[in-house]
Design a protein that fits this description.
Layout lengths: L6 E5 L3 H13 L3 E5 L2 H10 L4 E5 L7 H10 L8 E6 L5 H4 L7 E5 L3 H18 L4 E4 L2 E4 L4 E4 L2 E3 L3 H12 L5 E2 H9 L7 H16 L7 E4 L3 E4 L3
Bound molecules: calcium ion.
Length: 231
């Protein structure tokens, strides 16, 4: 599950489509709210802090287009990403140009896999908009704006090179990076630096994390490199 309980509102009048979407989002770990008219969707938006909206273009009574405009005009709703769902042939320049204020659109019939990828991208971009720039793995969090690193409730003071190393590792937890890859990404143009230097700084990073962690967050792959992988 990747949804982490993000709240998704699905506004779609076709019952089978609504069920299919809700089911698949639910399986992914999202918290799904359903509406079969735009009016109902707007009511839900007043009561629940929604993270992303999937909005059908053709709705009875008020159209998806008009609903989208209202969402984007609302003080409390305008920053919620909206993905419009359109049937092939329905998509016109208004949707393509996204001048409805919609953040993205997807044409029916779509694959669920593609839709889920767009949902993840929408949620990620929304985080960027409000300026939250947080990377997390297990108990570890890295705030890229304030440069504060925490493990549980404890803050950890890292040197600039350890901070850079951790940032690379936390962006792809469990992926193993070779020492050369880390060297290239952290020290970029420094020709004099040897791969042993990577070991030294990983050693420092590990020591600082282990001082507060209840287990080792850094896995060493002998003769190759390192990953962020809690044993
Ligand atoms: Ca429809």
């Amino acid at each position: 599950m990747s949804g982490n309980g993000s709240k998704i509102l699905v506004i779609e009048d076709e019952p089978s489509q609504l069920e299919l979407l809700s089911y698949n989002l639910d399986v992914e770990g999202y918290d799904v709210y359903k509406a079969d008219t735009g009016e109902e969707g707007l009511l839900i938006l007043q009561e629940v802090e929604i993270d992303l909206i999937l909005l059908d273009w053709m709705l009875p009574k008020t159209s998806g287009l008009e609903i989208c405009r209202q969402i984007k005009r609302g003080k409390h709703t305008k920053s919620i990403p909206v993905i419009m769902l359109t049937a092939r042939g329905e998509e016109d320049d208004k949707v393509r140009g996204l001048d409805t204020g919609a953040n993205d659109y997807i044409v029916k019939p779509y694959s669920i896999k593609e839709l889920l990828a767009r949902v993840r991208a929408g949620l990620r971009s929304a985080k960027g908009i409000v300026g939250v720039n947080m990377l997390t793995y297990e108990q570890l969090t890295m705030d890229l704006t304030s440069h504060v690193v925490r493990l549980g409730s404890q803050s950890i003071h890292l040197g600039p090179l350890e901070f850079k190393l951790l940032r690379i590792l936390i962006e792809a937890p469990t992926r193993v990076f070779s020492r050369d890859q880390l060297l290239e990404r952290v020290w970029s143009n420094a020709l004099e630096v040897e791969t042993r230097t990577v070991d030294v700084h990983i050693g420092r990073l590990r020591k600082q994390l282990n001082a507060v962690a209840d287990g080792d967050y850094i896995r060493t792959v002998r003769g190759f490199g390192y990953s962020l992988d809690k044993a």
